[in-house]
Amino acid sequence: MEYFVIGDDDTVLGFSLVGVSGIACSGEEEVRAAWQKALEDKEHAVIVITSDAAAQIRDTVDRYLFTMSFPLVVEIPSRRGGSTTDLRELVNEAIGVSI
């Protein structure tokens, strides 16, 4: 089971420091391409996407959030987001496993 992250440069860099691959995106076309790449590799069991990136392809993300069981999609606050929730808590809550 591998993780894959889609988001801004800082988020992707941060996840890469712990061994998670991903793609930094800034526009809708880049986000869609990153999403497709994440789905192509069947080893990606968890796709972590920032709220800013998810907003650009909301229809696609929602389809996976509400109807698909695999891969698991975890939407996290963007670096500019105002959430005070710990990132580890968000991932643990989404996958039901403490990391």
Describe the structure.
25% of the residues are buried. The protein is globular. It has one domain (2-95): Rossmann fold. The chain is an alpha/beta fold and 99 residues long. The longest helix has 13 residues, at 28-40. A four-stranded parallel sheet has the order 2-1-3-4, with helices on both faces. It has five helices and four strands. The mean pLDDT is 86.
Strands, helices and their partners?
Blueprint: E1 2-7, H1 9-16, E2 21-24, H2 28-40, E3 44-50, H3 51-56, H4 58-66, E4 72-76, H5 87-95
Order of H and E elements = EHEHEHHEH
Q: How many discrete domains?
A: 1
**What is the fourth-level CATH superfamily?**
ATPase, V1 complex, subunit F
Taken from the alpha-carbon principal axes, the silhouette is globular
Number of strands: 4
Helix run count: 5
Average predicted confidence as pLDDT? 86
What percent of the residues sit in helical stretches (DSSP H or I)?
Answer: 40-55%
CATH top level assignment: Alpha Beta
Which tags fit this structure?
Rossmann fold; alpha/beta; 5 helices; single chain; 45% helix; 99 residues; 4 strands
Report a brief summary of the structure.
The protein has 99 residues and is of the alpha/beta class. 45% of the residues lie in helices and 22% in strands.
